[in-house]
């Protein structure tokens, strides 16, 4: 007899650390919600209109459940916004559509096989929206009576609760009383009680108690007393990923593995059983499959075995949208001796939809650097911003973006100044090398640096002849 499949609904309370990261300024794709036309600069993204519109079309189809099992490649030179577009998509998807981000190097560093790591990533990117009915009691608390035992035994009490149409008294046990005390429920509160789990939710304070406003505080939420029957049946929707269901039903791992992150390898028999059960729920209209997005960065780092697995997995009924990013041209495919565009096998490249990104213009670089300065909460003078823009054109956008923070640190050594000036940027660029300066440094100091064969030349500082060690 097949074991019963269990699910869990996670309520994640996200508490940001307010850290500034490379893409923390991105809020979405910056497109018009109706026409999907990209704005020149919106939601933290600048330029790349064609790539952003293409991403928006794919995003819209994913949200409507009209696309799954497709592969998209974002290809372009370094510092052209490939990961930024993927981050914009993740911000725009919404809470119910899963978005999983994976770096290709993670596949080879996990304590599991490559195919298992990819399978888990695929199943994290597919959500199951489960609908079930639950009985709840919702009303305004009229009175709470608690009988405390002299001997310190079990507590007992009565709860009087009403709607605009009826009023009822319920007996309360020890657990119910503890829940009431924990939620600080008092007469005049409007509460909701789940009969199955016994969970109590305080909805707000009844308008009939609005005269107690000063006593309750300014942040008190006032609501109307519920109408109709006290007991009602409501539909509750839980959204979980297939991977979460896999972990919960894997006897070797169990529920706690969701929190530790160490899920290990999950047997294929467990996944097959879950797929059958989810298919039953779908037929009975108890569940809906929500294909999400799996983003694989630096996809050229995968080997031929991984590409072969992804090629097959995309043909499965339960497959998400796979979005990949690569900054390579014709390069050798890992695990083979032949070369291919973007580092992808030709048979896999044939089924991929390709979105291209292009280098930013001078004005776009200036806008991006201005946005980054605002995100870092740094004031930059027009002259300093112009120099940073020139550096971004010549040495790279990432290098120019890093100089914003280092220039501000130099500015802090000058008391009374709140704005980064031209001199701060110049000094910062002298302290920190860009890639071109680094290459020149290696060429100039090549004999003093340890080479590929382990040879190095040590020169005395007092002007004597150099000692060559090979």
Automatic annotation (TrEMBL):
Signal peptide: none annotated. It comes from the Eukaryota. InterPro entries: AAA+_ATPase, P-loop_NTPase, RuvB-like, RuvB-like_C, RuvBL1/2_DNA/RNA_bd_dom, TIP49_P-loop. One of its GO terms (cellular component) is Ino80 complex. Its EC number is 3.6.4.12. Keywords: Activator, ATP-binding, Chromatin regulator, DNA damage, DNA repair, Helicase, Hydrolase, Nucleotide-binding, Nucleus, Transcription, Transcription regulation. One of its GO terms (biological process) is DNA repair. It is an enzyme of class 3 (hydrolase). Its main location: nucleus. Gene3D superfamilies: 1.10.8.60, P-loop containing nucleotide triphosphate hydrolases (3.40.50.300), RuvB-like helicase, domain II (2.40.50.360). Residues 68-346 form the AAA+ ATPase domain. The keyword Amino-acid biosynthesis does not apply. It catalyses: ATP + H2O = ADP + phosphate + H(+). GO terms for molecular function: ATP binding; DNA helicase activity; hydrolase activity. It is found in: Nucleus. Belongs to the RuvB family. DNA helicase participates in several chromatin remodeling complexes, including the SWR1 and the INO80 complexes. This is RuvB-like helicase. It comes from Rhizodiscina lignyota. The lineage of its organism: Eukaryota, Fungi, Dikarya, Ascomycota, Pezizomycotina.
């Amino acid at each position: 007899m097949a074991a019963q499949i269990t699910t869990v609904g996670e309520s994640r309370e996200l508490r940001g650390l307010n850290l500034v990261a490379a893409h923390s300024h991105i809020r979405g794709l910056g497109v018009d919600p109706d026409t999907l036309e990209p704005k020149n600069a919106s939601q933290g993204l600048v330029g790349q209109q064609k790539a952003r519109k293409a991403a928006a079309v794919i995003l819209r189809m994913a949200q409507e459940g009209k696309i799954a099992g497709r592969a998209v490649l974002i290809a372009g030179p370094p510092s052209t916004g490939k990961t930024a577009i993927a981050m914009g998509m993740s911000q725009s998807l919404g809470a119910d559509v899963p978005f999983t981000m994976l770096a290709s190097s993670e596949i080879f560093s996990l304590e599991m096989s490559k195919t298992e790591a990819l399978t888990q990533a695929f199943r994290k990117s597919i959500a199951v929206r489960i609908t079930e009915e639950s009985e709840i009691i919702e009303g305004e608390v009229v009175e709470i009576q608690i009988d405390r035992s002299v001997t310190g035994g079990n507590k007992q009490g009565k709860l009087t609760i009403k709607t605009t149409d009826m009023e009822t008294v319920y007996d309360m046990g020890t657990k119910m009383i503890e829940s009431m005390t924990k939620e600080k429920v008092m007469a005049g509160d409007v509460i909701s009680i789940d009969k199955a789990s016994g969970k109590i939710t305080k909805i707000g304070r009844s308008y009939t108690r609005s005269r107690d406003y000063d006593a309750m505080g300014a942040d008190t939420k006032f609501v109307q007393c519920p109408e109709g029957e006290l007991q009602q049946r409501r539909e509750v929707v839980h959204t979980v990923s297939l991977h979460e269901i896999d972990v919960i039903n894997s006897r070797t791992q169990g529920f706690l593995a969701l929190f530790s992150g160490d899920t290990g390898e999950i047997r294929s028999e467990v996944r097959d059983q879950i797929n059958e059960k989810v298919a039953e729920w779908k037929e009975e209209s108890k569940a809906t499959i929500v294909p999400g997005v799996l983003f694989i960065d630096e996809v050229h780092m995968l080997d031929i075995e991984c590409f072969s697995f992804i090629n097959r997995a995309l043909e499965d009924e339960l497959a998400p949208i796979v979005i990949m990013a690569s900054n390579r041209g014709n390069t050798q495919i890992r695990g083979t001796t032949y070369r291919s565009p973007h580092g992808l096998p030709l048979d896999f490249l044939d089924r991929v939809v390709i979105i291209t990104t292009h280098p930013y213009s001078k004005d776009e670089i200036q806008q991006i650097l201005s946005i980054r300065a605002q995100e870092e909460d740094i004031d930059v003078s027009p002259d300093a911003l112009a120099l940073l823009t020139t550096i971004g054109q010549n040495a790279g956008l990432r290098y120019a973006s890093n100089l914003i923070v280092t220039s501000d640190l130099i500015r802090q050594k000058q008391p009374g100044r709140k704005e980064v000036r031209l001199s701060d940027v110049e000094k910062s660029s002298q302290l920190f090398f860009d890639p071109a300066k680094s290459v020149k440094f290696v060429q100039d100091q090549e004999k003093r640096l340890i080479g590929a064969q382990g040879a190095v030349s040590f020169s005395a500082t007092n002007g004597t002849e150099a000692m060559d060690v090979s």
